[in-house]
Amino acid sequence: MINEDKRRFMRMSVDAVAKLTELESGKVYQGVCHDLSATGLSVTVSDPIEANSTVDIFIDSSGDMIQPLSAHATVIRCSQEQDEQWVVGLEITKFN
Hints:
Structural class: mainly beta
Helix content: under 10%
Shape: globular
Number of strands: 6
Order of helices and strands: EEEEEE
Distance between the termini: 40 Å
Low-confidence stretches: none
Strand order of the largest sheet: 1-2-3-6-5-4
Number of helices: 0
Mean pLDDT: 88
Strand content: over 45%
C-alpha cells in the first residue's frame, strides 16, 4: 500500500514541551509538541482549545545552537485522544 501524503512540507517528529497562550483570553496551556513542519504542528494538552482560536506558541530549544520557536498560530482542530488528553492541530500564521 502506498501512503500518499499531500502535505507541502515534511513533518519532523519531536517531543518538546510547548506553552500555548490564547491571545484573546490569556489562558495558558502546557503540552507536548509531537510533530512540527514549516507551517504547522500538533500539541497534546490536558484541556480542549476551541477551533479558530489564535494562540501564541513557545517551545524552548534544548541547546544554545537552536533558537526557541515563538509564533502565533490558529487552532485548526482539537480532538480528544485518551484519558483527558487533547491533540491540537495548529497552523502557524506568524513567526515572532
